Amino acid sequence: MGNALRFLCGHCCKPTEAGDSYSLGPHGVSAATVGVSALARDLLHFEITSQVPEGLGKHVVSSKKAQANWYRKLLEAWKEAKPPPKTPEEAARLVIQTLKRHQKADVEGLLAFYGLPLPPTLIQVSTGIPTSLPEGVKFEMPTLPVDAKAVADGDTITVYVSTTDPRESAYVPREVQTATVQRSKARAERNYGKADALHKKIVEAGYRLVF
Question: Which is one Gene Ontology cellular component term of this protein (predicted)?
Fold first, then answer.
């Protein structure tokens, strides 16, 4: 059985200097709830001026021309959303869905810039225990979706268990949990060398990250 991690990192990207971000820097605040209104303000600012936030370039790898393309798409998606996103999770899903064909590092960097949840925190899984099971079923294992390719034959199956369930997270070694959180932060800071080293450490411990 394969091991997989899914953490509620919930960390926010705090600007390193005053004025680092058009939206967050001047306020000195990086809470995710503020990130939603900051994204909305930046989209309005882009609609008026066609300019993207100055500090964004420190969090993503693509050019300003590409960034302008993102904001053009996000602005259109935001206007079409009925109602528009109100929570960090809703805003993050809109960003991920709208920019799903773009580089992963750019999407994660944009989310981190606004302090919005990163992809691993957005996978919805039911972990509740049903009051009754169908006849003949003796046990239910709440998991992440199983890839059909992971079923090699009738005797082998790889199951990815959600570690947001306290019953499962209790079995994950502390050093693996720490490495996972540190890797997410390293990627948000574009320190890919450190992120790769931490990923290797996680894999060597027998675990995988599922996005």
Answer: cytoplasm
